Amino acid sequence: MGIINVSPESFYKGSVKIGEEEIAAAAKQMEQAGAHIIDIGAMSTAPYLETVIAVEEEIRRMKQAIKAVKNACDMPVSADTPRARVAEEAIAAGADAINDVTGLKYDNKMSNIVANAGVPVIAGAYSKTSATGRIAGTLKALKESLAIGKKAKIADVIIDPSIGFFREEGKNPFYTRMTNVPWYIRDIEVIYNLGKLAELGPACISVSRKSFIGHLLNIQAEDRLIPSIICEAIAVLNGASIVRTHSVRETANALMMLQLLKH
Fold this sequence. Notes:
This protein has ten helices and ten strands. It is an alpha/beta fold. It has one domain (about 1-195): TIM Barrel.
């Protein structure tokens, strides 16, 4: 899954594409590099940044980007948003799936919109109340999202452990507060224990250039490619079905080699 962010506030500026021509070019490049899905983000949800924008602006960005990607390639598109109005407009514009980092919990209209549209949803681990950073807290949050999806009769719910979104504090409402372990330790434990989470269903992992890598290795986002790929490969070995990445060509090559060698 290749990431295209049309949100200038996103943490990794290399993923930001502005204007239909730039978005279309990025989608074509990702398709040629081996992507199977394009994930479009129109508002950053990074917990440590002040990124919340008006719903109308997120809708405008999202619709423009979906149109550009759909005109450029044949890949399915997922719309990365926790807000139901944006999801509804994205689906109307041609989005094939919704990626909700809050696991259908931030906006109580989200589950019905996804169910009525008959599209899959990627449900991120999220809790509105404080949660434990141990694997049990992530399992609990994901099981709650699966229950919401089942109640709404969503056919396909893909889980995502939300690497980077369990924090002691944050600047937006899209993260889960935890205080019992350091956030970077929690993220490592999730990757290590991904097999337990994947028992719940298909798992999507997004570790690409994330801040736990930067914290552990003291490097900026633009220098996190190699450790990102190592984390992605370990995640696949531990049960990930979808890898959401900023670096499609490098990740696709790495995972192809992994597939050739692991047998």
